[in-house]
User: Which sequence fits this backbone?
């Protein structure tokens, strides 16, 4: 047999358990406040890099390999996010001084890779010629998290510049080849 509850029953429920509900709410609020005060702030800096098509006329250089944007980003990120490059950035910007002595260079590079995020941004469109939906990557977002806002900005700026320089070098190698 189902019992239906009306507004008065619900009100009675809250009146009987008023102290427990208030204590629970205040405990959770106090716990949240303590966590917010005790934990150090984490800053995040982002850079969005737009992907452009080849600027060289196709009659001058025939595109022998059609690189998809995701593949280009992956190739460049392997160069930029290499252990040596990350260690160079860490030394240049004096990152992670509190844990540098306790960890190996490989662990430090792994830590930095964990603080860096690369997310591709794509747009969906309906290709009438092929009769299906297509996805085209038009940009990617690079972000870095850390405790010092100035260093977070510098790391993001340095890594985004490295991406652009590596893309420029790879395009020059393609042209000269």
Assistant:
């Amino acid at each position: 047999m189902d019992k239906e509850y009306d507004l008065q029953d619900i009100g009675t429920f809250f009146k009987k358990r008023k102290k427990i509900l208030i204590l629970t709410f205040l405990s959770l609020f106090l716990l949240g406040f303590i966590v917010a005060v005790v934990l150090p702030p984490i800053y995040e800096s982002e850079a969005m890099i737009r992907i452009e098509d080849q600027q060289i006329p196709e009659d001058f250089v025939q595109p022998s390999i059609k690189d998809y944007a995701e593949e280009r980003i992956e190739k460049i990120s392997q160069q930029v996010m290499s252990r040596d490059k990350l260690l160079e950035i860490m030394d240049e910007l004096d990152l992670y001084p509190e844990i540098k002595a306790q960890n190996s260079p490989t662990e430090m590079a792994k830590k930095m890779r964990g603080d860096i995020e690369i997310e591709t941004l794509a747009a969906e469109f309906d290709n009438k010629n092929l009769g299906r939906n297509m996805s085209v990557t038009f940009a990617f977002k690079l972000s870095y998290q850390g405790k010092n806002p100035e260093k977070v900005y510098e790391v993001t700026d340095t890594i985004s510049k490295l991406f652009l320089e590596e893309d420029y070098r790879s395009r020059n190698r393609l042209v000269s080849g």
